[in-house]
Amino acid sequence: VSLLLADALLPSGSRVDVRIEDERIASIVPAGEASAADGERIELDGALLIPALVDGHVHLDKTLVGVPWVDRDASGSVAERIRNEKSMLRAARVPVAERAERLAHQLANHGTGHIRTHVDIDPEVGLHGLNALVEVRERCRDLLDIEIVAFPQSGIVTLPGVPDLLDAALREGAAVVGGLDPQGLDGDASAHLDVVFGLAERHGVAVDIHLHDQGEQGTAQLREIARRTRALGLEGRVGVAHAFALGTVGPEDFAATARALADARVSIMTSAPPGLMPPVMRLRDDGVTVYAASDNIRDSWSPYGAGDVLERATTVAYQAGFTTDAELQVAYEMVTTAAAEAIGVAEYGIAPGLPANLTVVDARSVAEAVAAHPPRVLVLHVGRIVMARRWRAAEPA
Ligand SMILES: [Zn+2]
């Protein structure tokens, strides 16, 4: 299979012809210089070509995509919302594999090529959700790559049997071990993190912890996570989601915590919740990898979202008050290169030899793509066309 993407605009600003042979990028030459060869040719007319988007934190098993609209009156504590979610999913009556697969298609059609999805692991659901997502991962392998996190949504320490279930999940298809509010929800940060990091060590897997705890209770846990990361040599393989605490403490606590995270190469994910997004630029300046992701998409936790992580980059930029092209570029990196680095996507980017995981956006610059999250016009996954549509004609010269 040979495919020529003619006159593509790279994020760097150069206009190029990109030839794809089989699954990989074969060559990149200045626009107009590619030789005519057999195979398909797609004229991009200067549209923006980016590496496949990365949505490094979603919950495929929770989504109600494809289910008629559900009234949401959820409020109250996290524990109450967890109970509320269970009754909502039971009432939906659509099997988890079906809901998850529908969302995976939506993500792929928006140009996302790599996702990391959490899946609830608790005594009630057991490995049911995990098994469903392993099936979906296989069925969607031509659309996008799916990495699964075994996520103890209802706690670890306070519930009997969860460590064994997480252990089983890691043997049966999960590639990452999760955690959740070790102190705030589970009431015992040490015991919780003993289990999480113990499993990471035993299975040689990455760690991805949800942390909503705010204030100094939250930053103390972040520093403890960083300490354990270094102790086990897991630098670069541990991430924390939300980390609201970083936006709620004084400058000294922030600086000490950011330094610990940077030294341990612990990454931070934000879904840009109003008022709770960590200070993105300060963290980056301190050397911390920060990325953005969709998190909950139309489920009991959030009514929002259509599975477009580029739209999430828009939200990040908006919340952060970004207005210059350089700032919008940061938001772009948070759903591409930084996210790829954080979740460990091998072979990421646009260069000869790399897998052709590519997305074309109807935009004339990275800044425009973030500001407006315009429609995707072409999506390729390992050289195969996932989605293609007509878009506006080239602007007159
Ligand atoms: Zn989450």
Bound molecules: zinc ion
Helix content: 25-40%
Shape: globular
Strand order of the largest sheet: 6-7-8-9-10-11-12-13
Proportion of strand residues: 15-25%
SS element count, helices: 12
Quaternary state of the chains: single chain
Instruction: Note the run of SSEs as H and E.
Output: EEEEEEHHEHEHEHEHEHEHEHHHEHEE
Cα-atom Rg, whole angstroms? Answer: 21 Å
Structural class: alpha/beta
- Which residue ranges are poorly predicted, with pLDDT under 50 across at least 5 consecutive positions? 393-397
C-alpha end-to-end distance: 33 Å
Q: Quick one: how many beta strands?
A: 16
Explain what the structure shows:
The chain has 397 residues and is α/β, with parallel strands linked by helices. Helix content is 35%, strand content 23%. It has helices at residues 78-92, 96-109, 128-139, 162-171, 189-203, 215-231, 251-264, 280-285, 309-320, 325-334, 337-343, 366-372, and strands spanning 2-9, 15-21, 24-30, 40-43, 48-51, 53-58, 112-120, 145-151, 176-180, 206-211, 238-242, 266-270, 290-292, 358-361, 376-381, 384-388. The protein has an 8-stranded parallel sheet with strand order 6-7-8-9-10-11-12-13, with helices on both faces. Strands 3-2-1-4 form a 4-stranded mixed sheet, with no helix packed on it. A 4-stranded antiparallel sheet has the order 5-14-15-16, with no helix packed on it. The longest helix has 17 residues, at 215-231. The chain is globular and about 65 Å long. Bound molecules: zinc ion. Zinc ion binds at residues 57, 59, 118, 210, 241, 295. Zinc ion (ZN) is lined by residues 57, 59, 118, 210, 241, 295.
